[in-house]
Specification:
The protein is an alpha/beta fold. Among the domains are: 1-78 and 95-128, no CATH class; 378-480, no CATH class.
Length: 574
């Protein structure tokens, strides 16, 4: 099928993804035009394709708002135990198509746009991918959010709203060229700023003796964390959870006195320094300033998040002033070691701010945190120089030292005199520059540790963290990584999804992927296999047309395409 033939066939199709109700189509057209006229202040004569995309995004947003508000009202009223997923990466991908699918308005949107002479696929391509992740770790976080919303769990994601995400790739003369990923250049219609929930995050300073064995962090420098919320709708269940991303803001953005002296760069130096914290996903840490910025990012995330979690814990309909019940209402999952500073930060809050005794605070903290490990390479485990922690987070280093000392004392009660084991298990490494092993901190400070596949889990139990496994075998468990079948099958390959539904007789597999095992009975069914081959040919023809249209490369659709996909093997989450 040539490019022209493919485009002609596409134009002939009306609501190819389903039959829409007339009333829904009319309402959507009305909403679309209202947003185009009153939000974007455009009419069809001057509107650009991006204007049409934004009007469509706002129309879909209308269908999220009531679900979002009602979900949060239910959580406030019922006060369930909440899950908080902390990750430095959230590789969300495009939001428009996934949202239309989950709130079940895809067919109606298709029909409404067709009647207005607009192409849904062209508008979908305008959306900028929110590349706030680098690979499997970020995509796992995104899939977990989708899955938890679909399961109706009271869950929240917390991350950083980077100004620039993963680099934008172009190919020039056959070579990869990396450009800044300016995903916010045209704004983001899928987020809502919440300046009323800004929190101060402190760095530097000193620690003083506050009497009675208490310590006080003083003379610190503050940066503000402003949240931006993105709705996470479940699949056709009216649940809509929240991804909250923090953006760094300076306490004062502009020094007019300095500006009026002609020192224009110096006038905004403080603002730029503060806001650099959320500027870039994974700044280059091959030099000191880059390492320092990475450490600030990690603490910025956990400090703002814990303040927000505690605020929510206390203001729910059944909110409590005491934090004694904290682990019964709060579960915090650390996605790799990047959020590991949440452990000493919670201890600082409980001991220094709330005045809790150390042992009681430690029991609460351990019962709250769980840790997902992503690497089996010892040299790849995250480590921070003690000198850098002492400069940027002096109180937290003191807390880490005490956690480590009490852990080593406990370890020696089980293996008296085993100094070699003590050296191996200490989270303070003293070979060369003194450093903190953040993975060890996570294991000691969490009640559960999981690998991301059976093989991975066996490696961390028998090799990487074997000493810790011998001490706490009950902590270690496997949680095979999952991907959401909604995005990665139903959305990506609608023709194959239709064939599966026809073969199985229902769509239960969309929320229970185990149902696909029933397809094994059709392994020798000629009609079913021929249908699969037809779908494969059609998809290859679409890919060939895409390559010709975007890259001027002609490909024979009968070619065998061999793709290398990065990331470990995943099972599919419900």
């Amino acid at each position: 099928m040539s490019l022209d033939e493919y485009e002609l066939e596409k134009r002939k199709q009306i609501s190819v993804r389903g039959i829409a109700e007339v009333e829904n189509v009319a309402n959507l057209k009305t909403a679309f035009n209202r947003h185009l006229h009153f939000d974007l202040v455009k009419d069809r004569n001057v509107a650009t394709p991006r204007d049409f995309y934004l009007a469509l995004a706002k129309t879909v947003w209308d269908h999220l708002c009531s679900r979002w508000i009602r979900t949060q009202q239910a959580y406030f009223r019922d006060d369930p135990k909440r899950v908080y997923y902390l990750s430095l990466e959230f590789y969300m991908g495009r939001t428009l198509t996934n949202t239309m699918m989950n709130v079940d308005i895809t067919a109606a949107i298709d029909e409404a746009l067709y009647q207005m002479g607009l192409d849904i696929e062209e508008l979908e391509e305008i959306e900028t991918d929110a590349g706030l992740g680098n690979g499997g770790l970020g995509r796992l976080a995104a899939c977990f959010l989708d899955s938890m919303a679909t399961l109706g769990l009271a869950a929240y994601g917390y991350g950083i709203r980077y100004d620039y995400g993963i680099f934008e790739q172009t190919i020039q003369n056959g070579w990869q060229v990396e450009e800044p990923d300016e995903w916010l250049r045209y704004g983001n219609p899928w987020e809502k700023g919440r300046p009323e929930y800004c929190y101060p995050v402190n760095f530097y300073g000193q620690v003083e003796d506050a009497g009675n064995g208490k310590r006080k962090w003083v003379n610190s420098e503050a940066v503000f964390a402003m949240p931006y919320d993105t709705p996470i709708p479940g699949y056709r269940n009216n649940t809509c959870n929240t991804l909250r991303l923090w953006s760094a803001k300076a306490p004062s953005g502009f020094d007019l006195k300095i500006f009026n002296t002609g020192a224009y760069i110096d006038a905004v130096f403080g603002r730029n320094t503060a806001e650099n914290i959320s500027r870039v996903l994974y700044p280059n840490d091959n030099f000191f300033e880059g390492k320092e910025l990475r450490l600030k990012q990690e603490y910025f995330l956990v400090a703002a998040t814990l303040q927000d979690i505690i605020r929510r814990y206390r203001v729910a309909d059944h909110g409590q002033r005491s934090l004694d019940n904290f682990p019964n209402k709060v579960a915090i999952q650390l996605n790799d070691t990047h959020p590991s500073l949440a452990i000493p930060e919670l201890m600082r809050i409980l001991v220094d701010v709330e005045g809790m005794e150390w042992e009681k605070a430690w029991n609460i903290s351990c019962a709250t945190f769980a840790y997902t490990n992503h690497t089996v390479l010892p040299e790849a485990l995250e480590r921070w120089p003690c000198s850098m922690l002492e400069n940027i987070l002096p109180r937290h280093l003191e807390i880490i030292y005490r956690i480590n000392q009490e852990f080593l004392d406990l370890m020696l009660t089980k293996w008296p005199g085993d100094m070699d084991r003590l050296r191996r298990m200490s989270m303070i490494e003293e070979d060369g520059e003194k450093r903190v092993n953040m993975a060890y901190l996570c294991i000691v400070g969490s009640h559960a540790v999981n690998g991301v596949s059976e093989v991975h889990t066996e490696i961390i139990k028998n090799d990487v963290f074997h000493d810790f496994y011998e001490m706490w075998p009950e902590k270690f468990q496997n949680k095979t990584n999952g991907i959401t079948p909604r995005r990665w099958l139903l959305l990506c390959n609608p023709s194959l999804s239709d064939a599966i539904m026809d073969a199985l007789g229902d769509d239960k597999w969309i929320t229970n992927f185990e149902k696909l095992k029933d397809l094994a009975a059709l392994a020798n069914n000629i009609q079913f296999l021929q249908n699969l081959m037809r779908i494969k040919r059609e998809n290859k023809a679409k890919f060939a047309s895409y390559m010709e249209q975007h890259y001027k490369i002609k490909i024979d659709p009968s070619t065998l395409f061999d793709f290398q996909v990065s990331c470990a093997c995943f099972e599919v989450a419900g």
